[in-house]
Design brief:
232 residues, OB fold (Dihydrolipoamide Acetyltransferase, E2P), Ribosomal Protein S8, Chain: A, domain 1, 5-stranded mixed beta barrel, 4-stranded antiparallel sheet, 5 helices, 16 strands
Length: 232
């Protein structure tokens, strides 16, 4: 049987769809999100193609948030418990905020906890525990962790959060300075925006552009131009 020549059919950083043939021959090694079928290397899911030497892998471009220790998240109060609150954090599992992690104040036994956080309230919290059974605890003790007042919440692809935040917060700082809005980006794919309604809309347009173009090079430059109104 004739050996198939090792050929990469797609370029690094291409968006690849499930079943698409990425390479032929046995020279390329299937990594995350890819599989071998005979002498072809195929995509197992939608993803961003990454070539690392001879290893071919796909980075997810969509998907639910998977909680990790110390992540800063935005969550919504969905239940008031006897000793705390249940928080929806945009993932398959809800989190628990206990009294001791919510406040340093003394709260008497049987007190009305809705005076602190009521159903529907939005908070910024930090994940402090994730068990193998996916029991998640969050805390509001730390810088910037608080109840959110006003503004609006939008959902983004959790996989795009690092690009929206930027290196050392550079991208989100650029958007804040250009629009005058307060912005908090949760690592769980929820973003809080507060400011002038027109400026909030500009923030949403900018974040959408980042999501769509996050795999392209020169993103910061294009976003800067977009915010100055010189490009689309």
């Amino acid at each position: 049987m004739e050996k198939t020549e090792d050929t990469l059919l797609l370029q690094d950083k291409s968006i690849v769809i499930p079943g698409e043939v990425i390479a032929t021959g046995m020279g390329y090694i299937p990594g995350t999100g890819t599989y071998r079928e005979g002498d072809k290397l195929n995509a197992a899911r939608l993803g961003l193609l990454t070539i690392d030497g001879k290893v071919v892998k796909l980075l997810p471009v969509s998907g639910k948030y998977l909680p990790k220790l110390n992540d800063r998240v935005i969550g919504k109060v969905i239940d008031v418990l006897l000793n705390g609150w249940r928080i929806e954090i945009n993932c398959p599992y809800s989190a628990v905020l206990t009294l001791k992690d919510a406040t340093s104040e003394f709260i008497a036994r049987g007190a009305d906890l809705t005076q602190y956080f009521a159903l529907g309230d939005w908070i910024v919290a930090k994940i402090v525990n994730v068990t193998s059974q996916k029991l998640i605890d969050v805390s509001m003790k730390g810088p910037g962790l608080r109840k959110l007042q006003g503004g609006q919440i939008i959902a983004v692809n959790p996989q795009k959060v690092p690009r929206i935040i930027g290196k050392e917060g550079s991208m989100v700082t650029l958007i804040k300075e250009a629009t005058g809005c307060n912005i908090i980006v949760g690592q769980n794919g929820l973003v809080w925006i507060e400011g002038d309604p027109k400026a909030q809309l500009r923030v949403i347009e900018t974040i959408t552009k980042i999501e769509v173009e996050s795999h392209l090079t020169g993103l910061t430059e294009r976003i800067s131009t977009f915010l100055k109104g010189k490009g689309a």
